[in-house]
Structures
1.
Amino acid sequence: MNTTKAAVITSPGNLEILELEMPTLQDGGVLLQVLLTEVCGTDVHLLKGHLPEAPYPLIPGHFAVGRVLETRGEVCDVDGKPIECGEIVTFLDVYGTCGQCWFCQVAHASTKCPNRRVYGITFGLRDGIHGAWSELMYLKPGTRIIPLRGISPETFMGGGCGLVTALHAVERAGVQLADSVVVQGSGPVGVNAALLARMKGAAEVILIGAPQSRLEVGLQFGADHVVDVNTTTPDERVALVRELTEGRGADVVIEATGNPNAIPEGLMMVRDAGVYVVAGQYTDAGDTVINPHQLLNKKHVDVRAVWGIDYSHLHRAIRLMKHRGSEIKWESLISQTYPLSQARTAIEDVSSGRVMKAALAPVQLE
Ligand SMILES: [Zn+2]
Ligand SMILES: [Zn+2]
């Protein structure tokens, strides 16, 4: 029987490298050798215990690139082409969306399907080796697997969860040609949201965040203006956005901060009858106060939120990387690649904002 080394969050605050036994593959299952994965903001929350329903102990890692070592029976991609042993692939982290329930069938909101599970987040160790911070990973039958023909592991992971989440947020925002767009937050989601808003035809993109090193990346990824939250007050930032948008405020504001106080500030930045998209409040970071007359009713504003992703977002992100990856350097978003043994350091570096993105390479190839 195979064994694998994996980084396991045994309980909030505790991360250990454990040697685990791999189960036998079921029909339709895939054994993946993980080549590259990442520390997403969600993993920071998992270690800190901010996701109350997380099934500890668990192996984090919901976005990854790996080599197919073994398949049991025929496993196909979305076009019906068989996945071959040795192929470099990624997978949709969302598993088990049923297509049968009220949310799937009536609301057409599959990210709220109660049967939906997520590799590395809602699968625990008791379910299996279902996180990517591991040399080997077991993908269950029915997992959507995507060959990365022509996309390097570094390009894919440079985009990673942030690109796919940003794609969903920008889709929800309905950015139109010549729009002015504000993005609050300069982490991987914010920087990719700035990029995608520009690709969708925004005439002007304003990126608000910190530290300066992340804002500089934002400028390379399509932001026209960057604003450092460490050297400005909320009133100054709102005034600046209005100054840049003929006094009206931005057509679209996308929030990707994780800070509840960004919400009233962002609502002050959006123009009357504009669109405000909340993507960054993935964990419960507390309350904020808004004046609903001033910021909602009187503004006639359209507020939309984003929960999770579905296969379409990953599929589109991969097409973008395949066709635009030579001009857009997603791989440059990876600040540093860590071995599995330094997973805790990688989490700390993401948490402190020292790095834009930390990649993890569970298998050290020579
Ligand atoms: Zn469902
Ligand atoms: Zn993520």
Note: The chain has a mean pLDDT of 96.
2.
Amino acid sequence: MIVVTGATGNIGRSLVGRLLQDGAQVRALTRDPSRAGLPAEAETVRADLTDASGLAPLLGGAEALFLNLAAGGERSAVVVLDAAVKAGVRRVVLNSSVAVTDSPADETNFIARMHAAVERAVRASGLEWTFVRGSNYATNALGWAASIRETGVVRDAHPGAQGVPVHEADLADVAAVALLDRTGAHAGQAYVVTGPEVLTVAEQVAEIGRAVGREVRVERISEDAAAEAIAGPHLPKAAARELIAMFGSTVDRPAWPVSDAVERVTGRPARPFAQWAREHAADFS
Ligand SMILES: NC(=O)c1ccc[n+]([C@@H]2O[C@H](COP(=O)([O-])OP(=O)(O)OC[C@H]3O[C@@H](n4cnc5c(N)ncnc54)[C@H](OP(=O)(O)O)[C@@H]3O)[C@@H](O)[C@H]2O)c1
């Protein structure tokens, strides 16, 4: 049995499908099973992971856990991890971030700090572990969807910022291989998982334009306005500012090099952003 946190999310939904295809038994956690729309073959279970009570039955009988900070945040992740140890779970795959570099730089920004803290807890848990350190997610582009649909314009502080957008299905495929770990090769590995090419914000927007068959313009806005637009309950304004400034620093050089982890772990190349844009064209139309 494999327990998937954040099972209705970008990675989780893809991961549940992939694990079922591979013949695994899956327990999919969601706050609302009636709206989850997950395959009937999965055991879909109600769980609000910010509530520490009642975690034991969620993890009982499981061999592996996919832990996603998006499902309740950093604190909940550590509590769930602790419950997994008590329940006898053997292996954890943590959805981490390329921002974690195992250097003092990990203490200098919100994203790295948060993921590094949970990585430390995982290392200390005694479980077998694998980290999936994803680069910028292709799904971040969904944040432009309403604006593209309504105005045909994307407003961004750094149109020339260079990222390596990674498809959620590639993150899920790497996580699935590590969760099943049929070769024993994935314990203790921190995989930096990126897309196959460096693309600027403007280039990503152009790909979306091609996918929907119309021109989409990029309009430059201030860093402050951009931080305001992405701040929210899980991303305080100060952290949003840090993030926008960090994107600014990637205008002159890519944030991260392209990695071959998807191919090494899954045996097939990472999916290009153009494919992601075609698959999500309806979100932007
Ligand atoms: N965006 C990036 O560029 C990036 C890069 C590197 C790493 N990351 C990491 O990836 C994470 C995002 O992964 P994702 O895109 O797959 O997430 P996502 O699509 O936002 O999915 C998160 C899921 O968590 C569930 N959830 C939310 N609150 C919960 C709670 N209190 N208890 C239980 N479940 C809860 C929700 O499902 P229900 O509504 O069904 O409960 C939701 O579908 C980030 O948080 C970050 O840690 C992101």
Note: The pocket of NAP is lined by residues 6, 8-12, 30-32, 36, 47-50, 68-72, 95, 97, 134, 136-137, 139-140 (CB under 6 Å).
